[in-house]
Specification:
The structure holds 3 protein chains of 3 kinds. Chain A has 2 domains: 3-227, Rossmann fold, CATH 3.40.50.300; 235-356, OB fold (Dihydrolipoamide Acetyltransferase, E2P) (Beta Barrel). Helix content of chain A is 23%, strand content 35%. Chain A has helices spanning 41-49, 91-101, 106-120, 135-148, 165-182, 193-199, 217-222, 227-232; strands at residues 3-12, 15-25, 30-34, 56-61, 64-65, 76-79, 153-157, 185-190, 202-207, 210-215, 237-246, 252-256, 260-264, 266-267, 276-281, 286-289, 300-310, 314-321, 324-331, 343-348, 354-356. In chain A, the strands form 4 sheets. Chain A has a 6-stranded mixed beta sheet, sandwiched between helices. Chain A has a 6-stranded mixed beta sheet with strand order 13-12-11-15-21-14. A 5-stranded antiparallel beta sheet of chain A has the order 16-20-17-18-19, with no helix packed on it. In chain A, strand 17 (300-310) and strand 18 form a beta hairpin. In chain A, helix 3 runs antiparallel to helix 4 (135-148). The longest helix of chain A is centred in the middle third of the chain and has 18 residues, at 165-182. Chain A is elongated. The two termini of chain A are 32 Å apart. Chain B is mainly α. In chain B, 72% of the residues lie in helices and 1% in strands. Chain B is globular and about 80 Å long. Chain C is of the alpha/beta class. Chain C has 20 helices and 12 strands. Chain C has helices spanning 2-17, 31-49, 63-76, 91-100, 110-113, 146-152, 160-163, 181-194, 196-209, 219-225, 236-246, 276-287, 289-296, 317-322, 344-348, 351-363, 366-378, 382-390, 396-404, 409-430, and strands at 21-26, 53-58, 85-87, 103-104, 119-120, 123-124, 132-145, 172-175, 210-214, 231-235, 251-254, 261-270. In chain C, the strands form 2 sheets. In chain C, strands 1, 2, 3, 4, 7, 8, 9, 10, 11 and 12 form a 10-stranded mixed beta sheet that branches. Classes of the chains: A alpha+beta, B mainly alpha, C alpha/beta. Chains A and B meet through strand 6 and helix 2 of A and helix 8 and helix 9 of B.
Chain lengths: 366, 577, 433
């Protein structure tokens, strides 16, 4: 089932928690809503579930306008951050409860419970109360409970945030596996970019109540739209300057006070000549020339080494160019004898240089 | 290096030991106080239930005589029914109010939820007059009904077969605030996602209430209903007012105030104490063990829906309707206080300010207000200390007999007023605290002991809600148990303590039996005894007493509204156990 | 907290340090009496004895409470209670106290005694051994709601027997004799005055008409005022105060002609009084014409009360002579025809058992009695059946015998249980064909 937010706004008094949200979640997608806490992602999910009213705009399930439909009528499965397991019911009862309401036959109920228990490897724990389960087990009960009703859509609100790192990795695989098996359209809310990059088919990034960019994980990483996203998804280097338009070689030219002329491979739409812009360059795309050979590349400049951080498979070189901090990840770095204070020649391929559109209103909302 | 750390350890060990000694010393003092001001004085009086008046030896005959007399057995049955009916009706009234207040946001909520508590305070003596004025055979209600042609002959609201229900309804109107506070707290403390999850599953609201909300709120509900039940079971004032004498408290009162103090009365007192403790303990075991720890505490989300226009109108109708009905007796007291003459008419024939003038010219009323504020204030402080310590000892199971202690502090709720006060008179006559010379100390103690159950229940609920791990965290830093109590625990249960104090203070201000018996001289009269003295005066006595009662109500109402505004939602944390 | 306690200790000691003439009075009397008598006594004391006097006035809220307190005091220390005077509470209370042996005889000086006769309307005004002295009197009568009489088309009640008329069914309010000394005295006098058999019949019929038995002697008045009952047996001064407030057109009060019931309201010096001399002076003062006038004169009269009307009867014959024409009420107990002449002291030895008996057969079984009475009235047989309905479970002689054993609580409660059961069975058998 495809789900669509159409220009949805949610306000509390003067405060807009969600602003003019337009978003389509494709049928069968494992769609992530990503953003820092307070960005409006949970509110959006709760509106989708029918737990919050919509101040303005519409929500569609397929072609059906569900904006004013109560939560009870939407047929959704949901896993809350704190799981919301009913503490007075056993695992079995927790799962059975939603099924019983659907007036299914006894056998059908039993089959479905067995199925989800099997899915989530909970069969051993059916008679326990939630208080007697570990965090991971509780999480699986919550998931099983949501899946048992075979919802048309599954909503997950930070489902892994209460688990430890190892369990989290395990559960990521679990969820992806279950999603693939069931094919349920799923909206997954998280603040963990790694979770979204590793699991999602689609990711929407929200900030201060606004949707900033929707893309695939790869697209998001390689073509972030704004400095915020570039910084939020992975690490990046920023260079500021003024947009000068497209050169003959189809490259976008930015004049930077500190870096000189920068040739960039991609530019976000709606940027005009003369606009101040930010250029993003991922650390792994910032090349260091240990041999000192400089003239072959576009975008070259010198930086002073301030620190080297050893990361196992790579080393991160921390550098300074006229007061701008830069990072470069070097994989399998050759033997070198650089130390703090040494000057290194740096360069970047124009295709790795992305001109971003400026962030809007980053002050609003908390 | 290891030497040094040992030295540090042993010095902090010493500190801990000193602190623990002080701590346990305080607990011991508390137990001693309970012994001297509850157990011993009550025993002095109640022991006559076991003493043969002719031989002076031990006997159980009075219990046999009590059971042999149908008057007493039927009184016990009547009282139990009053308790049951009152508990059920208060639940029916309080549940919607509590749900509204826990779930909806509406304009004027703070004030309205404060107003809901006002019927809790009813000035003694004049309250009875208020009810009589309205509901007597030729009281305002009947006269109005007859004048408007709705009925022909007057309805005997308070007489005959209506007496039982008259008592129950008055109890309900008086006690529902306690139940309401309790239920609100219980419901508000439920993690809202548990209900939201049910919504998502397509569960209808009423079904959620039944399947999710109710089982989770039940322990809190039973904690409140136990107070309401015991209160209705042992309340003397209301059945006396209505004239329904076939109840246990009235029978006890008659027997123990009999000039000879009939020992059968004390046998009955003993039975009531045993019943109270049994009901308390069994409910504690039956319903207390099903406490489900919430995975998360109810977070205050934006999800409290604002009611729309019609919703607000409905809420106002319900809340104000309840308040207005519950305040009818108070309204009548107000009318009486301004009435110049009021005889067999729906409303007074004419009005006057004369009675208020008389109140302000009356030395006794000024003394009474001052004394009451002072005594009630002091007794509240005593309750705070005693209540907190007892609750702490009980909840954290610091003594082996914690259940005995917990039941013991519930006993004052069941004690007939006269037993404790007269126990003090007998126990402390010709000592430095003889009430004949200066009753202040005993008055404060009597007020405090009598209100102790509220404070203990309130503090217990708070202590049970805070996780033990918070205290354990403190002890890992080497803090002693009682340092932790002061620095960690008390601040965390502060709201509960304030709420408990409010109840202690309000009911201490309205105390009757201790005040009448212990404050024997004019200069020690508390407000209630001043009201009583005015009330007894012939002619305008009841009118002037009503005026003073009104002033008492104003003082208490402003206390309650003030506290409910300051505390807001936390007001509801009351009485949970 | 212990600081506070110690301060309170100090406070309580320091209060006793000031040496002064002092008298300690325990009294269930209303504030209005205290307010008139005490300032006047202080002034009188200063003028007569050239000294200031401190009056400590104690009260626990009601007569029974005060008696219980005094008893507890003597239980702790049989020599003294630390209290000098017990004042007010009706005859029954004082015979009770006298029986306990806590009253100390005091013979009035002739100057005072000459004005006070030994009895009024057949009732003694002092005990034989001078342990108590009547300090005021109150009489019992019928208080009624005139508007309600009109509404219900009932005649104005004039005698006690009128209240026994079935027309007054459910329209009378009485006080439980076990709860009120004055109700106790009233019942005893009626029973003695009418004779054992007739007395029981009258009391039973009135109880059959009774709506409720109240807990306090002032409550029947309130029931009549609020229209719950048409008439009540009531004490004169409660009634006059209400008539004063509500007007003669609304409520009324009659003293049944030739059936006057008077209750002296005594004062007594307690055994081991710590301030005996001042206590005697106080008793003399209360009985002096000057003080007695406060009882009978209206507010506003130079010699009358300053704050509020007291509306009692004086025990001083001379006071009536001196206040002729100026009094609130014309009635003079010394001119009233005696209803009966009884030895109240002898009768008072049975007052506890008697009120227990009334309680068992009239009050505690009131519901059953009402049913039986209503049934018989409906069948028109109430006059013929009354003898059976009213038959007490024991004879007068047995009553005196039982009273000797009445301190044995086991015997007492057993007997009461039997009476209650018998009465209930009797009423139930008479409430059906």
């Amino acid at each position: 089932m495809q789900v669509r937010f159409e220009n949805v706004t949610k306000s509390y008094g003067d405060f807009n928690a969600v602003k003019n949200l337009d978003l389509t979640i494709k049928s069968g997608a494992l769609h992530f809503l990503l953003g820092p806490s307070g960005c409006g992602k949970t509110t959006s999910l709760r509106m989708l579930a029918g737990l919050e009213t919509v101040t303005k705009g519409k929500i569609f399930f397929g072609d059906k306008d569900v904006t004013n439909l109560a939560a009870t009528e939407r047929g959704i499965g949901m896993v809350f951050q704190n799981y919301a397991l009913w503490p007075h019911m056993t695992v079995y009862k927790n799962i059975e409860y939603g099924l019983k309401l659907r007036k299914l036959s006894k056998d059908e109920i039993k089959n479905r419970i067995d199925e989800v228990l099997d899915f989530t490897q909970l069969t051993r724990f059916v008679d326990r109360l939630p208080g007697q389960l570990s965090g991971g087990q509780q999480q699986r009960v919550a998931l099983a409970r949501a899946l048992a009703i075979r919802p048309s859509m599954l909503l997950l609100d930070e489902p892994l945030s209460n688990l430890d790192a190892k369990l989290r990795l395990e559960m990521r695989e679990n969820i992806v596996r279950i999603h693939k098996k069931t094919g349920i359209t799923t909206l997954y809310v998280t603040h963990d970019q790694k979770e979204s990059l590793s699991m999602g088919t689609h990711i929407s990034v929200m900030h201060s109540g606004s949707l900033i960019q929707t893309s695939t994980p790869k697209g998001l990483y390689h073509r972030p739209a704004t400095p915020f996203i570039a910084n939020f998804i992975g690490e990046t280097n920023f260079m500021t300057g003024v947009y000068k338009g497209v050169a003959d070689n189809k490259r976008h030219i930015v004049m930077s006070e500190k870096f000189g002329e920068l040739q960039c491979g991609h530019c976000e739409p709606n940027i005009k000549e003369g606009d101040p812009v930010t250029v993003s360059l991922r650390p792994e795309a910032l090349k260091l020339h240990f041999d000192g050979n400089d003239k072959k590349y576009a975008n070259t400049f010198e930086s002073v080494l301030s620190d080297i951080i050893y990361l196992g498979e790579s080393e991160q070189f921390m550098m300074d160019h006229e007061g701008v901090s830069l990072k470069s990840n070097v994989f399998h770095s050759p033997e070198h004898s650089y130390k703090e204070g040494d000057t290194i020649l740096c360069s970047a391929k124009p295709s790795d240089m992305i001109i971003l559109k400026p962030d809007e209103n980053l002050g609003a909302g908390t | 290096m290891s030497n040094k750390s040992n030295a540090v350890e042993s010095s902090s060990k010493l500190k801990r030991m000193i602190s623990n000694t002080v701590g346990y010393g305080t607990v011991l003092m508390t137990l001693v106080m309970l012994f001297f001001f509850l157990v011993w004085p009550v025993w002095i009086i109640v022991k006559s239930a076991f003493i043969d008046t002719t031989t002076g030896g031990f006997t159980l005959q009075y219990f046999g005589l009590m059971l042999d007399n149908e008057l007493y057995t039927s009184a016990i049955v009547n009282s139990l029914w009053i308790g049951i009916a009152t508990t059920i009706l208060t639940t029916i009234i309080s549940l919607p109010l509590a749900i509204i207040n826990a779930k909806y946001e509406y304009r004027g909520k703070t004030i309205l939820s404060g107003l809901l508590l006002v019927p809790m305070v009813m000035p003694p003596f004049v309250g009875a007059i208020g009810i009589q004025k309205f509901f007597a055979k030729y009281g305002s209600v009947n006269i109005w009904l007859m004048e408007s042609g709705i009925i022909e002959a007057p309805i005997d609201w308070l007489g005959g077969s209506n007496m039982f229900w008259a008592v129950v309804i008055l109890e309900v109107l008086h006690l529902y605030p306690i139940m309401y506070l309790n239920l609100t707290a219980a419901i508000a403390n439920i993690d809202p996602t548990l209900e939201e999850m049910a919504s998502i599953f397509g569960v209808k609201k009423w079904r959620q209430l039944k399947d999710i909300t109710w089982p989770l709120a039940r322990p809190g509900y039973f904690a409140g209903s136990i107070i309401v039940f015991i209160w209705a079971l042992t309340d003397l004032g209301t059945p006396l007012l209505v004239g329904f004498h076939e109840t246990m408290p009235v029978r006890i009162f008659n027997l123990v105030t009999d000039v000879n103090q009939n020992p059968v009365g004390f046998a009955l007192v003993f039975v009531v104490i045993v019943m109270t403790v049994a009901i308390f303990l069994s409910s504690k075991y039956l319903f207390g063990k099903n406490k489900y720890e919430m995975m998360a505490k109810g977070h205050v989300t934006s999800s409290q829906p604002k009611s729309g226009f019609w919703g607000t109108a409905a809420i106002y109708a319900l809340v104000l309707g309840t308040v207005v009905i519950a305040l009818i007796p108070h309204l009548s007291v107000i009318l009486t206080s301004f009435a110049d003459k009021w005889f067999m008419t729906a409303l007074p024939d004419s009005y006057t300010m004369e009675h208020y003038k008389m109140v302000f010219n009356e030395e006794l009323s000024v003394i009474g207000i001052k004394n009451s504020l002072f005594f009630a204030g002091l007794s509240t402080i005593v309750d705070l200390i005693l209540g907190l310590l007892v609750a702490y000892v009980v909840v954290r199971k610091l003594v082996p007999f914690h259940n005995v202690l917990d039941s013991l502090v519930m006993v004052p709720l069941a004690l007939p007023g006269i037993v404790l006060a007269f126990g003090y008179v007998v126990a402390y006559t010709d000592t430095a605290i003889d009430p004949l010379t200066n009753p202040v100390f005993l008055l404060v103690m009597a007020y405090a002991i009598r209100r102790l159950p509220y404070m203990v229940r309130s503090a217990s609920s708070g202590l049970e809600q805070i996780s033990k791990s918070l205290e354990e965290a403190s002890s890992t830093f080497g803090a002693s148990q009682f340092y932790t109590l002061r620095k960690i625990t008390v601040p965390l249960v502060f709201a509960n303590l304030i709420a408990g104090s409010l109840l202690c203070f309000a009911y201490a201000m309205l105390d009757v039996s201790d005040s009448l018996i212990l404050a024997m001289k004019d200069q020690f009269y508390p407000l209630t005894k001043a009201i009583y003295a005015l009330f007894l005066e012939q002619g305008s006595g009841t009118y002037v007493a009503s005026a003073l009662g009104m002033i008492a109500m104003l003082i208490l109402t402003s206390c309650i509204l003030g506290a409910s505004i300051i505390l807001g939602k936390k007001m509801g944390e009351l009485f949970r156990s | 907290m212990f600081k506070i306690v110690s301060i309170l200790f100090l406070l309580s000691f320091s209060m006793n340090l000031v040496a002064q003439d002092k008298v300690v009075i325990i009294s269930p009397h209303r504030k209005s009496i205290q307010r008139e008598f005490i300032p006047m006594f202080k002034k009188h004391y200063k003028a007569t004895y050239k000294k200031d006097v401190v009056v400590e006035w104690l009260d626990q809220g009601g007569t029974n409470d005060d008696i219980r307190f005094v008893k507890a005091k003597y239980k702790g220390n049989s020599k003294t209670s630390g209290i000098d005077i017990f004042w007010g509470g009706g005859l029954a209370s004082f015979t009770e106290l006298d029986g306990l042996g806590v009253l100390s005889p005091y013979k009035l000086p002739d100057t005072i005694a000459k004005d006070i006769p030994a009895s009024a309307a057949g009732i003694s005004l002092r005990s034989k051994n001078n342990t108590w002295h009547g300090a005021a009197m109150s009489s019992f009568g019928v208080f009624f709601n005139k508007r309600l009489l009109k509404l219900t088309k009932l005649p104005e009640p004039k005698t006690w027997s009128d209240l026994a008329n079935p027309k007054f069914m459910n329209q009378v309010t009485l006080t439980d004799p076990r709860r009120s000394g004055s109700a106790k005295t009233m019942n005893i006098i009626i029973l003695e005055g009418m004779g054992w058999q007739k007395g029981w019949e009258l009391l039973t019929a009135i109880a059959g008409n009774t709506r409720t038995f109240t807990h306090s002697s002032s409550d029947p008045i309130k029931a009549v005022e609020s229209g719950d009952a048409v008439a009540a047996m009531a004490i004169d001064f409660y009634a006059t105060a209400i008539i004063d407030k509500l007007g003669k057109q609304n409520v009324g009060f009659t003293l049944p002609q030739g059936q006057t019931v008077i209750d002296p309201d005594p004062i007594a010096i307690l055994k081991g009084a710590p301030n005996r001399l001042v206590a005697e002076r106080f008793v003399n003062f209360v009985l002096s014409p000057k003080a007695q006038k406060l009882l009978v004169l209206p507010k506003g009269n130079k010699e009358g009360p300053k704050n509020a009307v007291l509306g009692r009867m004086s025990v001083s014959k001379n006071t009536y002579l001196q206040t002729e024409g100026k009094r609130l009420s014309d009635s003079n107990p010394f001119k009233m025809k005696a209803f009966l002449k009884i030895d109240m002291e002898k009768v008072s030895s049975i007052q506890t058992i008697f009120s227990d008996l009334l309680g068992a057969v009239l009050v505690d079984t009131h519901k059953e009695l009402q049913k039986a009475w209503a049934y018989q009235v409906k069948k028109g047989k109430h006059t013929s059946i009354i003898q059976k309905l009213a038959a007490p479970p024991i004879t007068k002689k047995q009553l005196y015998e039982f009273s000797k054993k009445w301190n044995d609580e086991v015997f007492r409660n057993k007997t009461i249980n039997t009476w209650t059961k018998q009465a209930k069975a009797k009423y139930q058998s008479l409430s059906k064909g």
